[in-house]
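Q: How would the structure tokens look for this protein?
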Amino acid sequence: MEQRVNIAKTFPEAYKGMYALSAALSSISITPIQKELIKIRASQINRCAFCLNMHTQGALKYGETQQRIFLLNAWRETGLFTPEEKALLALTEEVTLISRHGVSDEAYKQAQQYFTDEQITHIIMSIVLINAWNRIAVSTLLPVEDSK
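A: Here is the predicted structure in token form.
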């Protein structure tokens, strides 16, 4: 597949805004692995190969295990994820799939058990950002870089 329009070149101001939000989210109080779990799970749902490639590598760099990455798509069916991570993943899925039924009170209340309002704000903005990156990469056929 050949990459379509290169938005970074044709509309660099938009990319600057995306990178500014990325920079703002770089110092939030959730862990690097939690950040990568958000990015990987949203990218799985959105079928974004570019972002999956990037963020699985990032997760491994931060110490995530291959087994948990392999089973992330089935996080509900395994005991490999903590209740806190499950709350994070539930919120990630509901925000990513927001057109289906919004964000349920159950998912939000579950997140409130483990995260402060500030952290929930950071989590939601992280989910919003990866969904935006996914949509850019998928719609423009951003090529997956070979990691060999």
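The mean pLDDT is 96.

The chain has nine helices and no strands.

Upvote if useful.
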